[in-house]
Write a structure and sequence with these properties.
Blueprint lengths: L4 H7 L2 H44 L3 H10 L4 H16 L15 H22 L3 H33 L4 H56 L4
Helix pairs in contact: 1-2, 2-3, 2-6, 2-7, 4-5, 4-7, 5-7, 6-7
Length: 227
């Protein structure tokens, strides 16, 4: 006899219990990812604030380079460090002087942009870890619930056929399984979908900020006549 949704898990049919078990695993994985990404993006946001303060307080490329070496590792600092390192490789000793007599060639400037874009892409991919699983869980869980609905209704019809009647005692267990799996699928999917869209929006904002910082780096080189 099914008196509560939990009874479906313990006393339901094997297909229904399997579906609920899969949804339970999805839910656990989803919440682990939600908490992990929340903490990660919060840390990145704090790092971005400190990085902006360092950029605004720097009087030039040399000051910015020194400030970045004092900051903790972050996506923003890594992009700038890679840009500065590549620029130094192109023009050895250029960072030590206040002016650069010989500017970068168009090919070298394009190469510098490619290095910055490559690092931007790597940081975006790094920050996107776990997002794919949130999207998968958010899209698959309702389908798992729908499968449970179909299984539950099929069990109701099988019960009617075996008992030769359609009284409530025969139909109720299958309907209970159908509704329970539907609710479970939605309960797993809704937080995952909300989290995915929220985090995707924040990631787009971070990537936009990174692109802006990369442009600011090139602008700083231009202002100091290093290009």
């Amino acid at each position: 006899v099914i008196d509560s949704p939990l009874d479906v898990l313990w006393g339901g049919t094997t297909p229904t219990r399997l579906i609920l078990l899969i949804l339970l695993v999805f839910s656990l994985v989803s919440w682990v990812l939600i908490i992990w990404k929340w903490r990660e993006l919060r840390a990145v946001n704090e790092q971005a604030d400190r990085f902006v303060d360092a950029v605004e307080g720097a009087r030039g490329l040399l000051d910015l380079h020194d400030a970045l070496r004092r900051l903790e590792d972050s996506p923003f600092a890594r992009v700038f460090r890679e840009g500065v390192t590549f620029f130094s490789d192109l023009r050895p000793g250029a960072l030590e002087g206040t002016r650069q007599q010989e500017g970068l060639t168009p090919t070298q400037l394009d190469a510098l942009w490619l290095v910055l874009e490559k690092n931007l892409s790597e940081e975006r991919d790094e920050l996107s870890h776990g997002m794919t699983w949130l999207a998968i869980i958010g899209s698959v869980s309702p389908l798992m619930g729908l499968m449970g609905t179909v299984v539950g209704i099929m069990n109701s019809f099988i019960g009617i056929a075996s008992q030769g009647s359609a009284n409530i005692a025969v139909v109720a267990p299958g309907i209970a399984e159908a509704l329970t799996t539907t609710v479970a699928g939605l309960a797993v999917a809704i937080p995952a979908v909300i989290a995915y869209n929220h985090y995707a929006s924040r990631l787009r904002l971070f990537v936009t900020e990174l692109e802006g910082f990369a442009s600011e780096f090139i602008g700083t080189l231009a202002r100091e006549n290093r290009l």
